[in-house]
Design brief:
Elements lengths: L12 E5 L9 E2 L2 E2 L8 E5 L6 H17 L3 E5 L7 H6 L8 E6 L5 H4 L10 E16 L8 H10 L5 E4 L5 H13 L4 E4 L3 H9 L5 E5 L3 H5 L4 E5 L24 E9 L4 H15 L4 H7 L2 E6 L1 H21 L6
Parallel strand pairs: 4-5, 4-6, 8-9, 8-10
Antiparallel strand pairs: 1-5, 2-3, 6-12, 7-10, 7-11, 7-12, 7-13
Helix pairs in contact: 1-8
Length: about 325
């Protein structure tokens, strides 16, 4: 992990919010701070600096920190299919000072990899934030002009073309498996640590295409990459000429929701304080434009709604992971 990713002099963390709150006034936004006071909140990130999720975290953290009255610091915990951030808080003190951004991978990973933590038993669900649109992108000089061209090549030359994602078992990887099975194609998977690395690999032509969340959107908008298809139920307003996989006849969709979790047994008043701070940040006028910039959709869930969704998804995803050869029955 390079020092450029981490902040200097603050225990590998980046101060992103609330520096004025250390004045000890005890009032934030006209109300008394509740339980989270006296020291910063550490917000663990599972993905690298500079990506769309990191940008989103820093935006929300800055605004939530002002409401909480303490700085919010980002600490990067990379690897293990973007599950280490949530895993890191599983055994933390449940005082609200250690929280994590949890990707949907944390609800898949324990099905096919032994872990010392459980996403339902060891975490408190605080708030659902957003979901990332998934698409298939190539270099502008690629000979594959349409999604049909690409999939036909994968069928014609099994294993010859390679593609990048942000890791095994992620939304992009599972989508590629669906496509393999739908058309009888075969592509070689190349996992990266995050979206920015995957985009750079495609720009450098180290891979033939990218199948993942919309870290590619700025490069597509700049003409540096070309979007072939999206894995949504309907076309995206921003790219009205780009087809969905379903309309091209491929029964394949993908999404990648994420939210904030903390250690198990967090007191209800602390959960509520964190929820309210981040919900207020989501209501900032700049939030929706930020989501649109990175092709994300708001996915607000209360803590209880987020947990209920996670419980259902944890059960529903296992058959798909078994079908993909990632998990055992």
């Amino acid at each position: 992990m390079s020092s450029g990713i981490l902040s200097q002099g603050i225990d590998r963390r980046r101060v992103i919010a609330g520096t004025a709150a250390l004045t000890g006034l005890g009032l934030v936004g006209g109300r008394a701070a509740a339980k989270i006071a006296g020291k910063p909140v550490t917000f663990y990130s599972p993905l690298p600096a500079g990506g769309l999720i990191d940008t989103h975290m820093r935006f929300l953290g800055e605004r939530a920190g002002k409401r909480l009255g303490v700085p919010v610091l980002v600490d990067y915990r990379l690897g293990a299919a973007a599950t280490l951030a949530a895993a890191n808080v599983a055994n933390a003190k449940p005082d609200g000072h250690s929280i994590a951004l949890m990707t949907v991978n944390s609800l898949r990973y324990p099905h096919y990899q032994q872990t010392s933590w459980h996403p339902l038993n060891d975490l408190t669900y605080i708030i659902g934030l957003s979901t990332i649109i998934v698409g298939i992108v190539v270099h502008p000089d690629s000979p594959y002009r349409t999604i049909d061209d690409l999939l036909a090549a994968g069928k014609r030359q099994p294993g010859h073309l390679n593609f990048g994602t942000t890791g095994p078992g992620g939304s992009g990887h599972l989508l590629s498996i669906d496509l393999d099975q739908a058309v009888g194609a075969k592509f070689t998977h190349v996992p990266y640590k995050g979206g920015p690395e995957t985009v750079q690999a495609l720009l450098a032509r180290e891979i033939d295409f990218m199948c993942d969340g919309a870290a590619w959107a700025p490069a597509v908008d700049g003409g540096l990459l070309r979007l072939l298809a999206v894995a949504t139920e309907k076309r995206i307003v921003r790219y009205p000429d780009i087809p969905t996989l379903k309309e091209r006849g491929y029964d394949a969709t993908a999404w990648s929701p994420y939210g904030i979790v903390g250690p198990k047994n967090m007191p209800a008043d602390i959960v509520r304080e964190l929820h309210d701070a981040f919900k207020s940040a989501m209501e900032d006028p700049g939030h929706e434009p930020l989501l649109q910039r990175f092709l994300q959709e708001s996915w607000y869930r209360s803590g209880a709604e987020y947990r209920k969704w996670a419980e259902d998804y944890f059960v529903e995803i296992k058959p798909k992971l078994i079908k993909a050869g990632l998990a055992k029955s």
